[in-house]
């Protein structure tokens, strides 16, 4: 059943906040109801349970609109912008994602629902980035999906394991020491 | 104050289990005491609080003894073993690490204590691996610490974001599409 949009928004906002603050496993429908000033009955009229509510939030209501990284006129500049764009997206959203990690590994039905339905827009813009570089005649061989995974991997590691700032120096270092050398190698261009 | 070693071990084991099951934020000294069949007073005689107990566990009592990946006789073989070794280490330990993630981002004093004191052995063996390859005359330029970060980044991403198996096919793909091409580029060798 649909709810009044303002009420639905309040419940989704409360879910997002609690997911960041206490994580999926610890968050209860009780808490969500209190935070959203809604009754539990109202929540259950719209969603069968906590899992369905979270899947709906992540798949349909997280702001996924992000401008694609701009054309800077060079492959190096575009790569720095791509890494930076992913860093910024992660800094906005890592609370919710971290709140889900333990559940993703420990709750197979939630994990499957999210992996199947959650949108995974390419925030790095790797495909248009490589297409622009090839048009300019720059050494930019390889598969955009591999470039995307590599950028995402380096940024996540820096945030979670390194615990170090996602700043411009990091983006430039990743580009100069990993991404550009790899693109050169993928293109068969001598270093 | 030191405790009887068997009692200390039981408390540390209970902490490790609860960290994996419920995470740092949700774990209480009460729960640890119950699980370890110890009194809270006993725990407080040895550690000032939950944070100190977790820092002690992670820094001094997680099994960090892992055999270094073997010399397979070739750079490619050694890289596949290095990725596999890190996958195996992560599969044994990711429960504890995941239990700490939210606290690492939300609890600066715990994060600082862990980042300062936790051992970070290089489970990939990147330095001896590159040294062996150079001795064999293989194209293995570059900084071992960069190779290590790259392997760790790809494996963590696969586990957390991709949610896909850390199997041999993944290790070989990472080696053939990312690590070997990058080492070639770092060595200034044409692809």
From TrEMBL, chains A, B:
Keyword vocabulary terms for this entry: DNA-binding, Transcription, Transcription regulation
Keyword Transport: no
Pfam families: TetR_C_11, TetR_N
Span of domain HTH tetR-type: 5-65
Annotated region of DNA binding: 28-47
InterPro entries, A to Z: DNA-bd_HTH_TetR-type_CS, Homeodomain-like_sf, HTH-type_TetR-like_transc_reg, HTH_TetR, Tet_transcr_reg_TetR-rel_C_sf, TetR_C
Protein name listed in UniProt: TetR/AcrR family transcriptional regulator
PANTHER family listed in its UniProt record: HTH-TYPE TRANSCRIPTIONAL REGULATOR RUTR (PTHR30055), TETR-FAMILY TRANSCRIPTIONAL REGULATOR (PTHR30055:SF148)
Key word Lipid metabolism present: no
């Amino acid at each position: 059943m649909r709810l009044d949009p303002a009420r639905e928004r309040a419940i989704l906002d409360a879910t997002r906040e609690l997911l960041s603050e206490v994580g999926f496993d610890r968050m209860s429908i009780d808490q969500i109801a209190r935070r959203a000033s809604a009754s539990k009955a109202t929540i259950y009229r719209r969603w069968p349970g906590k899992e369905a509510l979270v899947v709906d939030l992540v798949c349909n209501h997280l702001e996924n609109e992000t401008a694609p990284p701009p054309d800077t006129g060079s492959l190096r500049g575009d790569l720095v912008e791509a890494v930076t764009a992913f860093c910024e997206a992660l800094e906005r959203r890592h609370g919710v994602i971290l709140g889900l990690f333990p559940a993703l590994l420990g709750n197979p039905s939630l994990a499957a629902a999210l992996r199947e339905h959650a949108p995974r827009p390419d925030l790095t813009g790797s495909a248009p980035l490589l297409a622009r570089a090839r048009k300019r005649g720059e050494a930019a061989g390889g598969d955009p999906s591999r470039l995307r995974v590599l950028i995402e991997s380096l940024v996540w590691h820096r945030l979670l394991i390194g615990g170090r700032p996602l700043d411009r120096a990091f983006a430039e270092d990743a580009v100069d020491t990993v991404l550009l050398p790899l693109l050169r190698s993928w293109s068969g261009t001598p270093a």
